Amino acid sequence: MTALVSLVGAGPGDPDLLTRRALARLAAADLVLNDALVPGDLLALAPRARRCFVGKRAGRHSIDQATINALLVRAGRRGQRVVRLKCGDPFVLGRGGEEGLALAAAGVPFEVVPGVSSALAAPALAGIPVTHRGLASGFVVVSGHAEGAYAPILGELPPGRATVVVLMGVRTRGAIAGFLIARGWPAATPAALVASASHGDQARWLGTLATLAGADVDPDAPAVLVIGAVVDLATTLAPAFAATPAARAAL
User: Fold this and answer.
1) Is position 30 annotated as part of the catalytic site?
2) Does domain 4-113 have CATH number 3.20.20.150?
3) Architecture of domain 118-240
4) Which residue among 14, 16, 35, 218 is the active-site one?
5) Catalytic residue among 16, 30, 56, 89
6) What is the pLDDT of residues 184-219, one digit of tens each?
7) What DSSP string describes 137-178?
8) Where in the chain is the domain with CATH 3.30.950.10?
9) What span, in angstroms and rounded, lies between the C-alpha atoms of 147 and 41?
10) Catalytic annotation on 216?
């Protein structure tokens, strides 16, 4: 394999959910720049690579995006095989587009290796289909880190018209619930939080918009918020399949 920068989606964390191309790029990598939530067993799949932690977590010191872009460009120009290992999918709220633009502007060859976004994986692993005939024919994915991120989309979405999936919304869940209720969503609208999807400690909370603010969930846990009628399917679907690695290992 010649020198190349690969923007690789790590999926929700379970190595079994990596693509074959992602595995190949990790095995051949000279350098891996990884996000904060990438687990160690994924990094172990790049045994010959030097590792550089470039993760971002809310409220904590982190490397700015311009520096990450510069690291990718520099390593690419040196002829290294670089993997930028990003949780979920590189182009779903992962700033992969910014990194791709920086590489393109510098004339550095790169590729995108799609990953399973937690926006889809977390609901699915908790028994929640984001679309379901008669309940929801579509879904929207928004960032929940600030009202300015989700308000332009959710403010225009008619109540119940689509399933709402929120990433990075654990700390702002109460504000999001209040925002939707103020715009006509019934307080009884089903809601769910899925934490650590695909990991051994995966956890699920089920409730409504009215009870979402008081959900018992670790504010630092990686979690996905799902809002809409499809959440009610979780109580029937989830017990019928092995959603966690431990459950699958027992089969």
Assistant:
1) no
2) no
3) 2-Layer Sandwich (3.30)
4) 35
5) 56
6) 999 999 999 999 999 888 999 999 999 999 999 888
7) S-EEEEE-SSHHHHHHHHTTSPTTSSEEEEES-STTHHHHHH
8) 118-240
9) 35
10) no
